[in-house]
Design goal:
Blueprint (H helix, E strand, L loop, with lengths): L15 H18 L4 H15 L8 H10 L3 E4 L4 E4 L1 H16 L10 E7 L3 E8 L11 H12 L12 E9 L1 E8 L12 H18 L4 E7 L3 E4 L16 H13 L5 E8 L5 E4 L2 E4 L6 H16 L4 E5 L4 H14 L2 E4 L5 H11 L6
Parallel strand pairs: 6-7, 6-9, 9-12, 12-13
Antiparallel strand pairs: 1-2, 3-5, 4-5, 7-8, 10-11
Helix pairs in contact: 1-2, 1-4, 4-6, 6-10, 7-8, 8-9
């Protein structure tokens, strides 16, 4: 009897499309870290190739760059000839962030948030009830209604009355408006810890999730340092930390202003930060205090948290820091707003955002 002989498996060198896909994944990760600087990302990739032999004699970094251009990931900008990302690259970065943080989503429907309320909604349920005046004819179950007519009036002469009509219940689906606040103060890169890259990835993943699965939802993204301003989702890969203090007040005021213009009922704020509020604007001047918790800045911040509560806007704070006095601030802030707070490591940030977003799918604020 001839048996099986086992030998050491030596995988073949990756060439062609496999090599391109592997390098593309690394390159897109580097684009987030370098805030969209193509030249710097390619320099990093070249150094990684020298150290870990990512390419071979068949397919090198030069071939990869040529393919990036031919596949529409890179383009040359105007007369300067500077190489920049295309919209295709930006979408790929968001898609990668979504798969990395939230996992691969299954396709299915429009994916709106389900609620516990039934009635003349969007999602067909298994419940049935008798027709009532004002019900839409679209919700009449023809088969059940004809069956009722046969039972009530017999088969000899068909007759369908109002009492025979049966309605298929449907469930309402809610539309949610979310504002995501990202802290870009200098502390987000202090002490050798890169906190801004995970925050950007979470924002991109959340944006891609809403775009794909919750098409009727809205997501607005704002950043706050000394001031606060709104950015578009396509701007996220290029987002950088600045020499800023933390003006949480300006961020909350802008978030409330955006949500005030949204007409749907369900509204919420997600805030990713690593520190306490240290700045606010008084007239045209900035009032700053980076030492301890300044009572003037703190009271203004808590006042806005209370105003959000009155407007039924819960604030979920994701604090990527563990200092005890910072936890006390977040605890008080959350108590005033009646929102939620999480103290996250950088690795767990994405899962926490997703879980809280998913938790609110059936909640009517």
């Amino acid at each position: 009897m001839i048996g099986n002989r086992f030998t050491e498996y030596i995988p073949e060198k990756t060439t062609g499309q496999n090599a391109f896909d592997n390098l593309l994944n690394i390159f897109l990760q580097l684009m987030v870290i370098t805030s969209g600087d193509v030249a710097e990302a390619l320099a990093w990739l070249t150094n990684l190739d020298k150290r870990y032999n990512l390419t071979n004699e068949v397919y090198g970094i030069g071939d990869f760059i040529d393919e990036l251009k031919s596949e529409g990931y890179l383009t040359e900008e105007g007369k300067s000839g500077k190489i920049v990302l295309t919209a295709k690259s930006e979408q790929s970065i968001r898609k990668n962030a979504l798969e990395e943080i939230f996992g691969k989503l299954k396709k299915g429907g429009k994916g709106e948030h389900q609620t516990g309320h039934s009635g003349q909604g969007d999602e067909i349920s298994s419940d049935r009830r008798q027709y009532e005046f004002g019900d839409s004819i679209e919700n009449i179950s023809v088969t059940d209604s004809i069956r009722n007519a046969h039972i009530n009036h017999g088969f000899s002469e068909f007759m369908l009355t109002e009492d025979d009509l049966e309605i298929v219940e449907s469930e309402y689906k809610s539309q949610t408006s979310t504002v995501l606040m990202i802290d870009i103060s200098h502390s987000m890169i202090l002490y050798g810890e890169d906190r801004i890259t995970p925050a950007k990835k979470v924002a991109m993943a959340l944006g891609e999730l809403i775009t794909r699965k919750y098409k009727k939802d809205t997501l607005d993204i704002i950043v706050f340092g000394n001031d606060a301003w709104q950015i578009k989702m396509k701007d996220l890969p290029y987002l950088q930390v600045g020499p800023y203090h933390t003006n949480t007040v300006a961020g909350l005021e802008l978030a409330m202003d955006i949500l005030r213009r949204r007409k749907n009922r369900n509204k919420q704020i997600f805030m990713i930060t690593d520190g306490k509020p240290t700045c606010m604007k008084v007239g045209i001047k900035y009032y700053k205090n980076a030492f301890g918790l300044d009572s003037k800045i703190l009271n203004k911040t808590l006042t806005l948290a209370a105003q959000c509560k009155k407007l039924n806007i819960p604030i979920t704070t994701f604090m990527i820091a563990s200092d005890p006095y910072l936890k006390e601030f977040v605890k008080e802030f959350t108590k005033v707003n009646m929102g939620n707070a999480y103290y996250s490591t950088l690795q767990g940030l994405g899962n926490l955002v997703f879980e809280d977003f998913k938790h609110n799918r059936r909640k009517s604020f």
